[in-house]
Specification:
The protein has about 90 residues and is mainly α. Helix content is about 55%, strand content about 5%. Strands 1-2 form a two-stranded antiparallel sheet. The mean pLDDT is about 95.
Length: about 90
């Protein structure tokens, strides 16, 4: 069974070249719904319909904090670590 996924915005493939996944498991983002509303005034579903978030914005959501500028590669590396942990716990 395929898991529903939340998209990551990727302008011209920049993030993919830096090792960013195209999407993350829906449930990983859904558990941070309140932070989506605080940061973007939109639900997880609405953000997904609009194309998702960039890695830096997604990290703010997953860390339950306001958005602030951060290094893109650092955000992608941290996101990949979170995904690795999430996947290990899911299996």
């Amino acid at each position: 069974m395929d898991e529903k996924m939340f998209p990551i915005l990727d302008w011209r493939g920049k993030y993919k070249r830096l090792g960013c996944p195209a999407a993350v498991p829906w449930d990983l983002v859904k558990m941070h719904e309140m932070q989506c509303i605080k940061n973007h005034m939109q639900s997880v579903l609405r953000l997904a319909v609009r194309g998702g978030l960039c890695p830096e914005e997604l990290m703010a959501i997953l860390e339950d904090r306001p958005w602030y500028p951060m290094d893109t590669q650092e955000a992608i590396d941290h996101l990949n670590k979170i995904l690795e942990t999430y996947t290990a716990k899911s299996n």
